[in-house]
Amino acid sequence: MHSVCDCSPSSRKSYTAGALSIALLTAVFASGCTKPVSFSESVFPVLQERCGECHEPGGKGYEKSGFSVADYDAIMKGTKFGPVIVPESSVSSTLMRMVEHKTDPEIHMPHHKSGLTRDQLDMLRAWIDQGAKNN
Ligand code: HEC
Q: Is there a single domain that holds both residue 59 and residue 8?
């Protein structure tokens, strides 16, 4: 059986939607939950799906900011002004503040679209706090 700290997408699929959010909430609030969030399995697909249409070379988000979600290196490089992810500190990460809508409304991301789900925000935050690794 899966433990509540098992956050990998393969095991998450077996939960129903309701059980999934409860499991995630439990995982987030349970102390000592160190199950790693995978960049390739969890973070990358979400950024590709929700940001990729504008943040790839040729897209308007990329053209304006220089931020591309094409691969891990591009994501860590950030915008033309510098990184938007501070490994181990989601609170200092511009990317996190933008997707949590703590920035100026003009740069809430995804731009003029509905935001990420709560589960996606929790997953991104955990990944950054675990060191934003290319795992
Ligand atoms: C519909 C198009 C669109 C989508 C989808 C989108 N963006 Fe953007 N993004 C933009 C545009 C346009 C800008 C430039 C905003 C500006 O500077 O006025 C931008 C700017 C940015 C910046 C730089 C902000 C700055 O000025 O420092 C970051 C970081 C960013 N986006 C991250 C994301 C992330 C993460 C996602 C997905 C969760 C995302 N974007 C989804 C269009 C988009």
A: no
User: Residues 6 or more apart from 12 whose CB is under 8 A from it?
Assistant: 20, 23
Total domains present in the chain: 2
> What's the domain range around 10?
1-35
From the centroid of its chain, how far is CA 125?
A: 6
pTM of the model: 0.80
What's the gap in Å between 61 CA and the centre of ligand 1?
A: 5
Distance from the alpha carbon of residue 75 to the mean position of ligand 1, in angstroms: 12
Which of 54, 63, 68, 117 best tests ligand 1's pocket when mutated (most atoms within 8 Å of CB)?
54
Is residue 63 domain-shared with residue 124, that is, in the same domain?
yes
Torsion on CA atoms 43, 44, 46, 49, rounded to nearest 10: 170
pLDDT tens digits for range 39-98: 999 999 999 999 999 999 999 999 999 999 999 999 999 999 999 999 999 999 999 999
55 belongs to a structural domain: yes
